[in-house]
């Protein structure tokens, strides 16, 4: 993995000899500011000091942060609407989050906070990849959609989900469920409704804590559009704390899609380098 990162840096330096710093957004629990990946439930990373390896090999300053953190920074600073208090929730294989408060990434005292995917929304729910039961990630991720889709296909082998899987020659995946839902299949749409409800419950809890200006949804499942966003918004309203007295934040799709992590990592690297030189560069669209 280190060799791949170095290869990418070398390619960038070939195209632009003015590369000033390296920024990395990594899945998992990333210690800040050391840039050490302590643990990643959906990958094999364990205690990997990425920042030190990159700086030693490239001679460039580097920053390494959680991928959702840097994606959240990109959306807050450079998205279609700029926010000082927001959460980016990435809904893909897992559920990640980047929390931006007062215009800066919130990480906690050791850089290990902001793990909304592992807040518990149903202790009697399915087991999560982290080992606990009922995490938001276990109920509102692409992995959860795959699990629910396989159960639905087993119960209705003549239904669209099972049929699409058979035609593809593979097991049911979240993408197959998404395809069926977008084609109008009621069973697949109901699975998105279940997933969105869990996501909205988690968002309502986060807004009760932070009072957010917005919640931005990114990750692969946001491509399903209102199939995901509509039930998420309904549940966020249903479970909102004091909705007559406190604003319910808009829930909107991400501006940058899959590029948010790359943009945010680069932005964070430039800011970190600028702060070490005594100034903070202003982001430009």
Can you put this structure into words, describing what you see?
Helix content is about 45%, strand content about 15%. The protein has about 280 residues and is of the alpha/beta class. It has two domains: about 1-70 and about 260-275, 2-Layer Sandwich (Nucleotidyltransferase, domain 5), CATH 3.30.420.40; about 80-255, ATPase, nucleotide binding domain (Nucleotidyltransferase, domain 5, 2-Layer Sandwich). The chain has a five-stranded mixed sheet, sandwiched between helices. A three-stranded antiparallel sheet has the order 2-3-4. The chain is globular, with a radius of gyration of 20 Å.
From the structure above, extract its key features.
285 residues; alpha/beta; Nucleotidyltransferase, domain 5; 2 domains; five-stranded mixed beta sheet; three-stranded antiparallel beta sheet; 15% strand
* Beta fraction: 15-25%
Q: Please tell me how large the radius of gyration is.
A: 20 Å
Question: Which CATH top level class of the largest domain fits?
Answer: Alpha Beta
The tally of domains stands at: 2
Work out the helicity level: 40-55%
Shape: globular
User: Strand count, sense and closure of the main sheet?
Assistant: 5 strands, mixed
CATH architecture of the largest domain: 2-Layer Sandwich
Low-confidence stretches: none
Structural class: alpha/beta
Structure summarized in a few sentences:
With 285 residues, the protein is of the alpha/beta class. The chain has helices spanning 2-15, 50-58, 67-78, 136-139, 142-155, 160-168, 174-182, 186-210, 226-238, 260-276, and strands spanning 22-26, 29-31, 36-39, 46-49, 62-66, 86-91, 95-101, 104-105, 214-218, 251-253. Helices cover 44% and strands 15% of the residues.
């Amino acid at each position: 993995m280190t060799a791949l990162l170095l290869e990418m840096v070398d390619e960038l330096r070939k195209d632009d000899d003015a590369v000033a710093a390296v920024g990395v957004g990594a899945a998992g629990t990333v210690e800040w500011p050391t840039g050490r990946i302590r643990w990643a439930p959906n990958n094999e990373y364990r205690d990997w000091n990425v920042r030190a390896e990159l700086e030693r090999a490239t001679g460039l300053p580097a920053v390494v942060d959680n991928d959702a953190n840097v994606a959240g920074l990109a959306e807050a600073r450079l998205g279609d609407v700029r926010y000082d208090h927001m959460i980016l929730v990435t809904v893909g294989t897992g559920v990640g989050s980047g929390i931006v408060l007062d215009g800066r990434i919130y990480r906690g005292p050791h850089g290990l906070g902001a793990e909304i995917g592992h807040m518990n929304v149903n202790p009697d729910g399915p087991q999560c990849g982290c080992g606990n039961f009922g995490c938001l990630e276990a109920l509102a991720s692409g992995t959860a959609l795959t699990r629910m889709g396989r159960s639905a296909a087993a119960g209705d082998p003549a239904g669209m989900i099972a049929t699409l899987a058979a035609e593809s020659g593979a097991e049911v995946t979240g993408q197959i469920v998404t395809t069926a839902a977008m084609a109008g299949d009621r069973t697949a749409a109901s699975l998105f409704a279940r997933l969105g409800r869990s996501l909205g419950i988690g968002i309502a809890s986060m807004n009760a804590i932070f009072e957010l200006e917005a919640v931005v949804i990114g990750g692969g499942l946001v491509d399903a559009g209102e199939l995901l966003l509509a039930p998420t918004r309904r549940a966020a309203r249903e479970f909102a704390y004091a909705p007559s007295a406190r604003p319910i934040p808009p829930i909107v799709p991400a501006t940058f899609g899959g590029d948010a992590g790359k943009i945010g990592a680069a932005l964070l690297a430039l800011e970190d380098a600028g702060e070490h030189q005594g100034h903070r560069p202003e982001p430009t669209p």
